[in-house]
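From: lab user (bench 3)
To: helpdesk
Subject: output format question, protein + S-adenosylmethionine

Hello, I'm new to running complex predictions and I'm not sure whether the block I got back is the full result or only part of it. Here's what I submitted:
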Amino acid sequence: MRYAFILGRVYTLSLAELLQKLGNLGINYKVLACAPEVVVLETDQPIQADKLQPQLGGIIKIIRLLDTFQKKGKEYPSNALINYFNFKRIKSDYFGEYSGKRQFGVSIYSLDPAIRFREESSRIAFLIKKILQEQSVSVRAVLPQFPSMALSSVQVNENQLLTKGAEIVVVSGTQRVFVGKTLTVQNYEDYGRRDYQRPARDEKVGMIPPKVAQSMINMAGNLKPLDYILDPFCGSGTILQEALLLGLRAIGSDLEEKMIHNSEKNLEWFRNRYHVAPGRYKLFVSDAAEISLQLPRFPISAIVTEGTLGPIYGKVPKKSEMKANFKMLNKLYTQVFAEFKKFLPEGHRVVMCLPAYKASFTDYEYMDTVDFALSNGYTVLDSIPPELVKKYKFLKVTERKSIVYDRKDQVVAREIIIFQYGEERLELSGNEAGIVESQTSDVTE
Ligand SMILES: C[S@@+](CC[C@H](N)C(=O)[O-])C[C@H]1O[C@@H](n2cnc3c(N)ncnc32)[C@H](O)[C@@H]1O
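Helpdesk reply: Thanks, we reran it on our side. This is the complete output you should expect:
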């Protein structure tokens, strides 16, 4: 089975999350093609897109690819598809049971970012519309506005394409064209609600976006329903709420009583709104450097935390200030990671954010060392298979295998890093097992 996944803005993080999640679910895959925005996978079993979509913070759309065609170099994808669409196929493979006026959209994703198609969506839409109108089916086509070649999840939703027709998607490479239909799109409104409608928000302390919290949890290894995760710097409780949504149990602590109070308020709101069973989380005040003194005796499967990023800056701080912050964090985290060893079993993970200060548009000042973890017996895991990073140059990982999540307006970015306690591998997850260069894969894609 072939699927295309539309990646969120920080492509590397989105892809890392997706591949680790598939690995956790025991789904083997081959990467057939990958470009900024889109990855094409062949999986050894069907994907339950409805279930998976709300669990993947970094994935914008899940598309089932139904057919593949050869294409010559710069040939337009519509040429390769000219004889493909017919009434029977459109009706049975693309449109659902809906019987009113059909609405459909056409989106194109190019596997070569240098190639942009101006009129292709309209050409393909015209082709489909003509076939349908010949059979007296009343249709309306929704098209992206150039320079965009694809519809956004908002446009797909607002035009009810998935219920009243289809979003037809063409993924075009230099030698192949994949065509299919969108199964699901990200529920952007719900992510917004989980962020902005919480009763206790503290902008001064900073909150991680729920999407990113979800990606981090998905990178914390093969967690089973009702496993416990711990966030010992929980702040307003974003990571905890996302863990609850993913069916886990959550323990949160923070040095500040006020933050625990905020987390309590937020999680109570969250529990009611998202129908989370009572007793799924526990909160308490504690210095993370002494957390074992108060931690309830629950088996912790993973630690997922933003940690403390130090002061929030409006402009890039002086190098000396950065150095002082890094030094302070190194000292704190050396104690914290020694604490974690008291209850985190070997082979289990700590996924955390470290501060990275913007030095230029593309460059960051990172903490110069993660000795706080290494000296305590942790190793750094690859966030994403290194073969992929080697092959697809747009994927960006740091020298120590971590991924930077940044926002234009922020001076301090988050460096997301995965540590594992001890050398032992918990189990070989599907992603490492599944990455095999596809026999059929285009060299250029
Ligand atoms: C960046 S905030 C975490 C925000 C959180 N991820 C959220 O989305 O709401 C960092 C938190 O670490 C807490 N903190 C700082 N030093 C700490 C320590 N030594 N032990 C525990 N918590 C600490 C702060 O009070 C703050 O709430």
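A quick orientation on your result: Confidence is low (pLDDT under 50) at residues 426-445. Let us know if anything else is unclear.
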